[in-house]
Amino acid sequence: MSTEYYVDKESVVRQIWGNGDIILFIFAGASAEFALSKAVDWLYFTERLPADPLGRLFSTVSYARAIVFSEKDSALRAIDAITAIHSNVEAKRGATIPDWAYRDVLFLLIDYSIRSFEVMERKLSWAEKLEVFDVFNRVGTRMGVKGLPETFEEWEKMRYQHLCDNLQHSHYTDDLFKQYRKHLGTARYRILLESQVLVVPDKVGELLGFRKISLLYPLMGLYKLSRQLKVNWLLKTLIMPSKYKEQIKALDSVPVFTL
Questions:
Q1: Has residue 22 been placed in a domain?
Q2: Does any domain span residue 189?
Q3: CB neighbours of 181 closer than 8 A, spacing ≥ 6?
Q4: Beta carbons of 25 and 195 less than 8 angstroms apart
Q5: Once rounded to an integer, what is the mean pLDDT over residues 81-102?
Q6: How far apart are CA 125 and CA 127, in angstroms?
Q7: Is there a domain that residue 2 lies in?
Q8: What CA–CA distance (Å, rounded) separates 191 from 240?
């Protein structure tokens, strides 16, 4: 009997979440948008994100990859674990995370998976975009998130509306970016900002005061060449602090999970 996986082995979603370069761009975009979310106070309640934004990145990536690369039953257990973590936070705070906040996270994972792949590789076909949408929409359904879109076209409309309704530049925004700079250092922080310019939607860029064109854009060809020469791992170690060296290398491997 053949093994059933949560994400088909031939799916472009596996290409996206099995590529460390793309994952780092997803992180760059998500870190910008998280800072603007009207629900960012939930991330401050646990204090995990401001205290260790890079550690939070690798924790989030670990769960996402557990879902993408695991057999179906293991992936479902990973999703249930995520739900349990959020339920525990809600119990401690005595409040409920709004469904729109859950949708925002799922929507940005869909969006930045697509945007980051297209920055690093090529334009996705319509069918491939549908694969990305389907995977994360199923995650949301398993988590019990209400009001999810039924089609990619509906997701596009809802994504735009969420960007308009649920983002704002607040004191949390400024504080989070201070934390990014503190944990990355000035040079790496500048690279993060330019990476964000490359992938964020216009609304996010406007709220953060970004210019339209990233200074990294002319360098993308050189970076892609470094990948062909198998030296891009060196560039990634320059971009991320050395204590995350092993985690960075692991991003380019197909993980094995036992959940």
A1: yes
A2: yes
A3: 189
A4: yes
A5: 91
A6: 5
A7: no
A8: 10
pLDDT score, position 253 = 64
Section 231-255 average pLDDT: 65
Task: Quickly list DSSP for 221-258.
Answer: HHHHHHHHTT-HHHHHHHHS-GGGHHHHHHTTS-----
| Total domains, the chain | 1
Token output for 71: 């057999």
Let me know if residue 249 belongs to a domain.
no
CA distances from 259 to 17, 67, 71, 85 (A): 19, 10, 10, 15
For residue 223 the two structure tokens come to 């970076």
Which are the contacts of 209, defined by CB distance < 8 A and separation ≥ 6? none
Determine which helix (DSSP H) or strand (DSSP E) holds 32, and give its type and residue range.
Answer: helix 20-34
One-letter amino acid of 71 = E
Eight-state DSSP code of residue 150: S
Q: What is the pTM (predicted TM-score) of this model?
A: 0.90
Burial class of residue 115, CB neighbours in 10 A (0-12, 13-18, 19+)? buried
For residues 117 and 60, what is the distance between their CA atoms, to the nearest angstrom? 18
pLDDT classification of 247: cutoffs 50, 70, 90: confident
Residues of the domain holding 102: 12-241
